[in-house]
Amino acid sequence: MCEVTEWRYPQGFSLSRRCAIPRRTATEVLGVCLVAAVLTLPAAFCQERTKAKPTPSDAKKQVAPDPEPSATDEQSQVTAKITRWFDGKAAAVSLRFDDSNPTHILIAVPLLTQHQMVGTFLINPGRDGYKRHKDKWETEAIRGGHEFGNHTMHHRGAKDDEEADYEIGECSKFIWNLFPGKSKLLAFRSGGGTTWNIQKPWSHYNKKWHLVYDEHSLGVGTEGEGYVRSMPQFKERLDQALKSGLWVTFYYHQIGLEKGLGISEAFFREQVEHLRSRRDDLWFAGIAQAHKYQAERRAAKVSIRRLAERRLEIALAAGTDVALYDQALTMELAMTGTWRADRVKVADAQGRVLKTRTAQSEGRQVVRFEVPPVNGTMTVSGSESRR
Ligand SMILES: [Zn+2]
User: Architecture of 70-84+292-381 per CATH?
Assistant: First the structure.
């Protein structure tokens, strides 16, 4: 435990904040934690702050793939599952751009939009880089389907809780205003090099202003925190995600100036081209979007029940709050024997036929379709296969 918690960025950037806990000796801290554990009261007390700002070692533990929500009908051997990522893609990729640097709206947004990829732009609405290009940010970036995240109003930390509430809260409200009717969950980072003299735990701000992190991704917790310096390094990290079915985030600051965290425009373009070449295997998602899919899938349960010969009912039990978690999930039905994927019909509880598509997965014919992350049932009917 500590008086000041500091997360050191490899580039020499650092972030610190004062914990609410007074400085203690190791023995005292151990004693306090043991008592806490016995009383089971503040078990979350120790855990909460790592949730807010995962240290690299914590983040590493969290990137293991989740267990799969699936169910099989024993007789027909039809299996229903929620795919690891949207549309059955092998891995998810988020591209994160910090500080509303003008090159983000002038270079990254048009290039990504052109390739049908999305970026997550952590903006500072109170700073010049945003204000100077406000019109473009609020038309081109939104139209292109890009995600905006909270990077605080001014990127200057806070001298107390009141200022923190303003810096974080106003930025959340600003973004909510730009995306009316959308989920309020926003990707967040407090800003490298800023100091937060706050007494309230970060979990207070996360909850109040609906902040989420990419802490379950491969970018965080590995050396460089998502920044890469060469194409081999970029490809290696992407391949690692593809091999393990993980979510990888890449971080960007200025594009076109190789200084500090900046990279050249040519290097950025090369990365985008490479991602494009792997598009069949990748889900390009915003950070909040990938976070939602992951959390929804983790909390969901799938069950399957036979209604009649060649008629199955699949039930989805969602475990997330639909007001915040609104990302559609991809359901996949795998067939063997006499069931044929191209003859399967799926209808929702109201009898409406859902749009499905067929694919191959692990040597089996599969049917895929999207479902909202809510409790519901679907009926699957298959016609006799004629060979
Ligand atoms: Zn920043």
Answer: Sandwich (2.60)
